[in-house]
Amino acid sequence: MTKTIRSLERGLQALKALHATPISSLHDIYEQTRIPKPTLLRILLTLEQSGLVSRRLADGRYRISSGLTRLGRKRDRYDRVAETAAPVLDRLCQKVSWPSDFMVPAGDHLEIRESSRTHSPFMIYVNKDRIGTPVNWLLSAVGRAYLAYCPESERKKVIALLRKSDRPENWLAKDPARLDAILSETKKRGYGLRDQTFAGGAYGTQSPDGLAGIAVPLLDRGRVHGVINIIWPKPARTVEEIVTQCLPSLQAAAAEIVNSLRKRPNMT
Amino acid sequence: MTKTIRSLERGLQALKALHATPISSLHDIYEQTRIPKPTLLRILLTLEQSGLVSRRLADGRYRISSGLTRLGRKRDRYDRVAETAAPVLDRLCQKVSWPSDFMVPAGDHLEIRESSRTHSPFMIYVNKDRIGTPVNWLLSAVGRAYLAYCPESERKKVIALLRKSDRPENWLAKDPARLDAILSETKKRGYGLRDQTFAGGAYGTQSPDGLAGIAVPLLDRGRVHGVINIIWPKPARTVEEIVTQCLPSLQAAAAEIVNSLRKRPNMT
DNA sequence: ACGGCCGTTTCACCACGTGGAACGCTGGAT
DNA sequence: ATCCAGCGTTCCACGTGGTGAAACGGCCGT
Fold it and tell me: Where does the record place the IclR-ED domain (chains A, B) (predicted)?
């Protein structure tokens, strides 16, 4: 009578826990499985090297590979993109030292879905900017890059939505002429920049983030899968310095992400 | 520096081999992975108990759970049904002792997709009737059960196709009146029976299989997912005996298969 | 009747999986 | 500024459980 392999059973158990909760901290998985954490760590490392699991750059949480969740769970299409972007943003961060975010539309704002901020040697981890943090459409570098390159129908929908808003950070939606000028300038320039009046975070906030950034879209045959940026403390560099030093790398990263998105719906 | 877990790695390796070749013998998997067979046996038993892999009744080959192949591989919709049917047919066979087949349409014939023939205590494994063996539409019990219950559009397509055929076993397609009578009688009766002139196997074969059978459809809201039957050596029992002894169990099995088909697109 | 192939069982060895303990970091509370 | 709680990670000694060569047995083709 053949017996089963315990270590394999437990590995699959961990995989199933991740299937039930597609993004989990080590502790989350521990709670579900009651497998001791050191053992879980080895299991997850093994799953990661087998390509079934990856880790989120921003907070180190474990993420089940998008190929395994097709059934049952409802995850939006951006999860695949975030997963694909993670290793590319990691390498980008190692190359240019400044960190990046990956951001996607979320109704009347964008939100952070992945980030290499915690991996940058220069920038302290800013507690406020976690996964899911909302970012303004019209004043941020990422929002402008997105709108400048996305299909017209999508742009119109976003602007129509923002026009209904009374918040001061959305006023620009009520000035189509100026907005169009800004977006066409962005497109000509090739990357998005913050509005000069915009200090980051909530509009008119008492704690501006003190950051500057440049942003490019993940452009795939007219479709935009999201935006990635490079950010730095405003006093440290001028935009011009970053553009010459980092923009090509940022654009290459965007191209690489889009490229591997096209191939990769396989189990490794 | 944490290390990975070898046994888990190998388990996943076997799983990937099955992903590449969704139905494989132990030897097939051995060829791909070069993991010793005794170890593979333990791995596959573990995967099976975790619900990721199941075994085909007919020949014991390993079959990756349909939930894991959604991406990449092209398998037809009947694979899921076969997988669901297997354990039910196994239990049915243990209960009534006579074996069953699960059959599905395949162009101008039906074919065997699953079978408990090897699990029956009474019937010798007949070498010719393997997975994939073609079965006649109009003379067999299974073909008649299928046509009697499937949607009219589907029935018409099949008959139109068979009318083009010159083979003697398809002649009935050219006699709509008689065929309609046979099918409506089948529907009234509730199960399919072989034509009296039909000896099994290829029409006019020198080696009739000497079997008799009754067949019922897997009927799901007007849709037919295939047919299951019970077969026995003709001399051993009369149709009437089998109908009273086994038909209710056969119908219950069909209902159970359809039922679990509806729920089950999950990872266990 | 025979031989080869494939699946399965056995068993003794010792790598390897295991988990308690201890460390370090971060964030929140006081 | 200080402390504490919670989480992730590393270390290491123990002994279990994974391992695979060898042997067995059943089926298939000849």
Answer: 67-263
Nearest to B7 among A7, A67, A68 (CB): A7
pLDDT recorded at residue B268 = 56
pLDDT in tens, A244-259: 999 999 999 999 999 9
Q: What is the distance in angstroms measured between the alpha-carbon CA of A8 and the sugar C1' of C9?
A: 21
**C1'-nearest nucleotide to the CA of B61:** C7
- Minimum CA–C1' distance nucleotide for A11: C17
**Tens of pLDDT, residues B173-198:** 999 999 999 999 999 999 999 998 88
- Asked if A71 lies within 8 A of B3 by C-beta distance, the reply is no
List helix spans (H) across chain B. Answer: 6-20, 26-33, 37-49, 78-96, 141-149, 152-163, 176-189, 239-263
Position A233 scores a pLDDT of: 87
User: Taking chain B, what is the end-to-end CA distance rounded to the nearest angstrom?
Assistant: 33
Residue A241 CB coordination number (10 Å): 11
Strand order in the sheet with A62-64: A23-24, A62-64, A53-55
Q: Which whole-number Å values give the CA distances from B173 to A60, B164, B168, B177, B180, in the listed order?
A: 65, 9, 10, 10, 10
Nearest CA in chain A to B18: A267
Whether A76 and chain B come into contact, CB under 8 Å, resolves to no
With 60 as the cut, is the pLDDT of residue A71 above it? no
Q: At what angle do helices B176-189 and B141-149 cross, to 10 degrees?
A: 90
- The two most distant CA atoms of chain A are separated, in Å, by 78
Question: Can you tell me which residue has the tokens 């050596």?
Answer: B233
- Measuring alpha carbon to C1', the residue closest to nucleotide C27 is A127
B195 Cα to chain A: minimum distance (Å) = 43
Q: What are phi and psi for residue B129, nearest 5 degrees?
A: -95, 75
> Any CB–CB contact under 8 A between A40 and chain B?
no
Q: What is the pLDDT of residue B131?
A: 87
Q: Which tokens in the block code for residue A241?
A: 């310095």
Give yes or no for CB of A156 within 7 Å of strand D. no
CA distances from A200 to A113, A132, A206, B128 (A): 17, 15, 10, 74
Going along chain A from its start, the domains and CATH numbers come out as 6-68 (1.10.10.10), 78-263 (3.30.450.40)
For residue range A23-70, list pLDDT tens digits in order: 999 999 999 999 999 999 999 999 999 999 999 988 889 999 887 766
How many Å apart are CA B230 and CA B244, to the nearest integer? 13
Give, as ranges, the nucleotides of chain D with any atom within 7 Å of a protein CB.
Answer: 6-12, 17-22, 27-29
DSSP-derived letter for residue A125 is: P
- Higher pLDDT: B58 or A162? It is A162
Q: Which of residues 31-70 of A touch strand D (CB under 7 A)?
A: 37-38, 41, 60-61
Alpha helices in A34-174 (DSSP H): 37-49, 78-96, 141-149, 152-163
